[in-house]
Amino acid sequence: MDVGTILQFTLDVLNLGSLYALMALGLVVIYGILKLVNFAYGELVMVAGYTLYLLNGSPLPWLIMALVAVCMAVIGGITTDLVAFRPVRANSLTAMLITSFAFSTLLQNAALLFISPRARNVPLPEIFTQSVTMLGVIIPVRNLITIASAFILLGAFTLVMKRTVLGMALRAAASNFTMARMVGIPANFIITVAFAISGLFAGVVAMLWLGRIGAVVPGIGLEPLLVAFIACVIGGMRSLVGAVVGGYLLALIDVSFNYALPPDLLSFRDAFTFTMVIVILLLRPSGLIKGPDTGKRT
Amino acid sequence: MLVVENLVVRYGPVAAVKGIDLAVGENEMVSLLGANGAGKSTTLLAIAGAIRPHSGRILFDGADITGMKAEKAVAAGIAMVPETRDVFADLTVRENLLLGGFIHRRRRAACEQEMESLMTMFPVLRERMHQPGGTLSGGEQQQLVIARAMMARPRLLLLDEPSLGLAPLIVNHIFELIERLRRTGIAILLVEQNATKALQAADRAYVMSLGTIAMSGTGAEVAGSSDLESIYLGRSG
Known about the structure:
The structure holds 2 protein chains of 2 kinds.
Chain A: H1 3-34, H2 41-54, H3 62-85, H4 93-114, E1 120-121, E2 131-134, E3 137-140, H5 141-163, H6 165-175, H7 177-182, H8 187-213, E4 215-216, H9 222-235, H10 240-260, H11 269-283
Antiparallel strand pairs in A: 1-4, 2-3
Helix pairs in contact in A: 1-5, 1-6, 1-8, 1-9, 1-10, 2-3, 2-4, 2-8, 2-9, 3-8, 5-6, 5-8, 6-8, 9-10, 10-11
Chain B: E1 2-11, E2 14-24, E3 29-34, H1 40-48, E4 55-60, E5 63-64, H2 70-76, E6 78-81, H3 93-100, H4 108-121, H5 123-127, H6 138-150, E7 156-160, H7 168-183, E8 187-192, H8 195-201, E9 204-209, E10 212-218, H9 219-224, H10 228-232
Parallel strand pairs in B: 3-8, 3-9, 6-7, 7-8
Antiparallel strand pairs in B: 1-2, 1-4, 4-5, 9-10
């Protein structure tokens, strides 16, 4: 294997892994606190996508449009909490799970009804279609943007979680929610913050994801949700680090099969990937990285 | 300071606390004793706002705080040290303490100062400052949760079984610390199964049995009562 192939392989893994890691973090930041898999998470990606589509043709520079779209995903996340989850939070976890399905379906159908079931192109800046050549390898600039954005966001997120009182409060709430309330951390506030962060990750994922596929459809959120869920499961549902590790590992598995499988088996790549996931889960049933011990909810 | 009137707490159809009255005065140390399942911890959790009472009233400084949210109770001046010794396991000792002062977070300097003075009282925590809370020994974790509760600068400290699962020597140390905390002017409501220790330390004591108050009086009175053992064993009350 020559240096060029190694470079290409590494960048492919980092690119896909960055996307997967961001998706997984958005899911796990809520799971950690509420023990709830938010199935409406994928729709936040959709909300950001359609915002970008609706802004098409406006005189704003693309970066501003993207910023508005990400903000809409954050607002979407907060709205999910206020409208869908807060009213039923006192009930069972099952009630919240069903609610998350309902909210997901509702948002998807709204997009079908008010926009279109067909794919809509979103505006993308020139730079997303350009590429550079390094060591004889053609590298799309959008891949480098994806990797850089992920690293910046992961770094900023780590800083917030480690250095600020808010971050500590989020980690404490994830480790023992009742105790967190008993030291005075307001439950409703901290949950809303978690949903806002989840929306932020979904929004950024949406921009990077759309940069790859170029168009938005009502079902766009399904794949990010599925990927995030698998990455969380192999990385460890209760650990933020686990989500990131799981994301990059899933990408490594995916890309490896992409390179290694003969062409006529390539269409079965997902089957091979999921087999690997099952093997990992057989060896480490609670995921690669163990989270905090207690998992009590309110 | 704290007055509980006819408190009833239910877990579904089961009443764990069946209409009790109790009071804690300013700078008073009151022990709440009783066998396993007598309803002591439940009473504390209801006062701390962690569970909603079914009926009855809880007054703090004359204000009705019945059914108040846990986070509001801390702001009102009631801090809880739960029996399960809930340190935030993956947060460092320092982070645990900082979160204890969450309600004062806007006054960072005052928090640092409070932490510093607690370090003098709990020197072992200073040595462990940057270790995750979960790596501490049982006795150290107990000191951490007490110090963390003190970071909120409460006026009433609720202590649930601080001696649970600790070696006798460490239990003695913990009780010394509680005594010193009390001398700082706060009131303490202490739940214990270790009756001897708790009665020595307390001004007054209540003994619970099967969800009701079976006996009350000064620490010495309760300790001298011949009924204490039978209440513990559930033969009367």
